[in-house]
Amino acid sequence: MPPPSSPNLHKAGAGPAPHGYVSSHDVVNAQTDAHRSSGSNSSPPITALHNQSEVQAHRQYSLDSFEIGRKLGKGKFGKVYCARDKATGYVCALKVMEKKELIHFKVEKQFRREIEIQSNLRHPNILRLYGHFHDSSRVFLILEYAGQGEMFKVLRKKGRFNDILASQYICQIASALSYLHKKHIIHRDLKPENLLIGLDGEVKLSDFGWSVHTPSSRRTTMCGTLDYLPPEMVEAKDHDYKVDLWALGVLTYEFLVGNPPFEEPAHKATYKRISKVDLKIPPFVSVEAADLIRRLLQHQPERRYPLDQIPDHPWIVKNRPLWPSSSGGQRRSS
């Protein structure tokens, strides 16, 4: 799909008529949450859809169902555009992937699993997948629009986050991971590149390509990003949901320092530092934050700090009163 010729929304739908069905119930039910991101002065589109018949509620989506705006980003397997549903005015993100690329890189199974997992998730800090459709050459995912963009770009621009912002992000991510784990889902690829920021500044966990639904808990596949791999993966051992706890520790460090804790130019050196848990925390990191990082970055998975205790950790408790109330922080009543 070519990028728009101007920043204004334009008509979509060149080429062969796409096909494929998806229920629009989720899109309709989400109007109130994200309608303000559209910039429209009209009332939320959900109000205009209450009288739809059951047949109309299950729409057939195609590329021509949307007005396509600017490109939001580009990943290994596709591009993401801002889009507006013509029927409702609802603003979303449309991820476009070439089928031949998915086949070439042999990720069809991984892609299918990603859709199955993400489409069933409902959490304020997890990016919604509302539906999907396809044409002869492409697959399209209808995703929640994250108004403030990519966490990775924000972190690189700032260099590092202060304790107030980092603690709020980490508490939100811990809440999202706890939700996943209760559903027996391991994310396995937590990193700044897989985080987005919503319109109100809240974290949105995305990219479930390496995620797995695993009621039996133990897994053997090495996956994820090198700097975030836990010792059990580096040492080719079985792993379970506690790999996400390790990744949360790495992420906490990167938020506060600006780079991952075990980063080295050579892969072997990184593997060695991870296996030894060769952790060096700079002195400018607060005592409370350093404590949480050390508690999460434990070589033995069973010793890692539990997610349900993170909201009560001293670092979170100390900074919670300073969090901006508009950014969806996980506040506790006193």
Structure in words:
Keywords: ATP-binding, Centromere, Chromosome partition, Kinase, Kinetochore, Nucleotide-binding, Serine/threonine-protein kinase, Transferase. Its main location: nucleus. InterPro entries: Aur-like, Kinase-like_dom_sf, Prot_kinase_dom, Protein_kinase_ATP_BS, Ser/Thr_kinase_AS. Belongs to the protein kinase superfamily. Ser/Thr protein kinase family. Aurora subfamily. It is a single chain. The protein has 334 residues and is α+β, with helices and mostly antiparallel strands. The chain has 2 domains: 10-143, Phosphorylase Kinase, domain 1 (2-Layer Sandwich), CATH 3.30.200; 149-327, Transferase(Phosphotransferase), domain 1. Helices cover 31% and strands 16% of the residues. The protein contains 12 helices and 11 strands. The protein has helices at residues 25-29, 31-34, 54-57, 99-104, 108-118, 151-158, 163-182, 231-234, 243-257, 267-276, 287-296, 314-319; strands spanning 10-11, 66-75, 78-85, 91-98, 129-134, 138-143, 149-150, 185-186, 195-197, 203-205, 212-213. The strands form 3 sheets. The chain has a 6-stranded antiparallel sheet with strand order 1-2-3-4-6-5. The chain has a 3-stranded antiparallel sheet with strand order 7-9-10. Helix 7 (163-182) packs antiparallel against helix 9 and helix 9 packs antiparallel against helix 11. The longest helix is centred in the middle third of the chain and has 20 residues, at 163-182. The protein is globular, with a radius of gyration of 21 Å. Residues 1-57 and 215-224 have low confidence and may be disordered.
